[in-house]
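Section 5.1 Outputs to date
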Amino acid sequence: MSLHKPDAHLYCTKSLCSASVSIAPFGVICEAMRIAKPLLLATTPVGAVWGLFEAYRLAGGLVFLMAAMMGVIGAGIGTVVLTVRREQAAARAPRERP
């Protein structure tokens, strides 16, 4: 089965204490998985700040190295996002014909 089918969607099934994710050919989507994005958006900044605090508690100068590393990773992610958005906007724009 190819993962690049345009009509394939992920869905989850629950059995006892575990959940599995697989490809659904008919577009069945589990509503319980919609919580993941807001949960990640809320917990990621909290975890980053907590990590900086713990770095300060462990070794004061380590917080500067961690902050610099987080800044570099954030800048890299930002440039990828901007490039993808720019390319998508260029693909959607009407093409000029000579």
